[in-house]
Backbone:
């Protein structure tokens, strides 16, 4: 009799265990179903931001739309954080753990494009060539889905959405990190539009940028050139010296510039000229050293041309610190969700885009499949997520919102991001982030493991020093 009772108790406990697992799975599926049901609504939000195409620190309407969407869902909104009018924090819940999600929404200048598979300007100032209209919307969708799950399951903790402006050169997140807005977060998740589905350990180049301004003396270029001192000569002298310097720096360094003001008329010696520089490398210490040499080149150019020089720091970001504990979790969830499949109409559009990129037709497999998991990556670009990753354990991913083979910052990326293809990839990201956050809420041991890895990789002597220094947010850097 005693043995029979023990067996009954054991069976009952096991049955409850199975019921709890099935119940948890049902609630997780409910989250995915809810995102599917609202996919059209989120697509409309993303495409509204695509139409707005507001540049860094000018994203008033885009930021307001995401804020309203979150506020309507019960999130508490804090506007204008870190001295940035378009930056905000939206929060639901209280206490630990605090799981953050990043959301961007700025567009790029000079990349206006219609929603067509040929290069055709939409006559706007900017375009979403990096897909941030999808980025901010998917992150918003994920945050809302997680909030609803927390409410349904009575889960304790905080889900926090960071509205982060001006990623494209404005280093918006750096000011937010500098302000301490990530200090109490336990984990931060993010994603980025791309041409394939991947959740590998990321890498990014550290970056430092500035505008160098030269001041000379104007004069008639033909009648009195000897009385003039050309600021444009100084810009060209600086550029020449920096270009010679390329031979004597680490070969993985990237330096690029654009002359933003070179004078107004050939027959007037320019008394003002400006050049905008970026320098990048895998390590921030190397970036800082090369930037200091660039300043010396600018000083020499001014001395040699009889002009004066000053410069303004515009941006500066750390490299990315990967967290494999979080990355593997995110990868596993991305594989559960899977990539996207094209409708016949989308396939026709994608084939046309593929031809402009030099392919016979679109590689549908890259849009549908998940790239194999890797623990290392080579850095090709920069992101202000780097500074976040040195403050809190961070993980990211990308999805096929563009036709496979499409480079970022291209008209093809703008065009495809304005279609249902972009919307589909966006929802893959929303679902993956939602599942990852839910798993972290349910299993706090994973958070502790991620924190331990984070502290070991960052090192015991790390001290955060923003590469852009103490300057105020560069709110007018796009002017």
Residues:
């Amino acid at each position: 009799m005693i043995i029979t009772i023990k067996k009954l108790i054991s069976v009952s406990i096991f049955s409850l265990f199975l019921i709890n697992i099935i119940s948890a799975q049902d609630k997780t599926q409910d989250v995915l179903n809810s995102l599917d049901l609202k996919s059209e609504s989120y697509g409309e939000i993303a495409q509204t931001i695509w139409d707005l195409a507001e540049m860094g620190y000018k994203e008033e309407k885009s930021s307001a739309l995401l804020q309203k969407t979150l506020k309507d869902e019960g999130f508490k909104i804090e506007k204008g954080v870190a001295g940035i009018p378009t930056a905000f924090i939206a929060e639901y819940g209280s206490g630990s753990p605090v799981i953050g999600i990043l959301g961007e929404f700025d567009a790029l200048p000079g990349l206006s494009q219609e929603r067509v598979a040929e290069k055709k300007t939409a006559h706007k100032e900017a375009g979403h060539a990096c897909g941030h209209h999808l980025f901010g919307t998917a992150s918003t969708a994920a945050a809302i889905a997680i909030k609803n799950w927390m409410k349904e399951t009575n889960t304790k903790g905080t889900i926090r959405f960071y509205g982060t402006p001006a990623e494209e050169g404005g280093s918006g997140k750096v000011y937010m990190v500098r302000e301490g807005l990530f200090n109490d977060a336990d984990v931060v998740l993010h994603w980025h539009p791309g041409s394939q589905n991947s959740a590998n350990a990321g890498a990014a180049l550290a970056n430092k940028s500035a505008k160098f301004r030269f001041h000379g003396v104007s004069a008639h270029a033909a009648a009195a050139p000897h009385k003039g001192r050309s600021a444009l000569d100084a810009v060209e002298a600086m550029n020449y010296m920096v270009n010679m310097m390329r031979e004597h720096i680490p070969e993985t360094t990237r330096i690029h510039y654009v002359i933003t003001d070179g004078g107004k008329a050939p027959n007037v010696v320019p008394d003002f000229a400006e050049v905008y520089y970026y320098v990048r490398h895998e390590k921030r210490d190397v970036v800082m050293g090369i930037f200091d040499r660039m300043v010396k080149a600018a000083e020499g150019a001014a001395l040699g041309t009889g002009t004066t020089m000053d410069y303004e720091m515009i941006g500066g970001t750390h490299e990315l610190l990967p967290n494999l504990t979080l990355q593997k979790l995110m990868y596993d969830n991305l594989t559960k969700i899977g990539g996207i499949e094209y409708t016949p109409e989308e396939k026709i559009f994608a084939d046309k885009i593929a031809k402009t990129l030099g392919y016979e037709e679109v590689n549908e497999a890259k849009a549908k499949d998940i790239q194999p998991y890797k623990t290392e990556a080579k850095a090709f670009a920069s992101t202000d997520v780097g500074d976040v990753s040195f403050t809190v354990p961070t993980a990211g991913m990308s999805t096929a919102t563009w036709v496979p083979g499409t480079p970022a910052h291209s008209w093809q990326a703008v065009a495809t991001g304005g279609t249902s293809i972009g919307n589909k990839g966006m929802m893959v990201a929303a679902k993956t982030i939602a599942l990852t956050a839910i798993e972290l809420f349910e299993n706090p041991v994973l958070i502790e493991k991620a924190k331990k890895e984070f502290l070991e990789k960052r090192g015991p002597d790390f001290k955060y020093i923003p590469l852009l220094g103490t300057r105020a947010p560069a709110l007018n850097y796009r002017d």
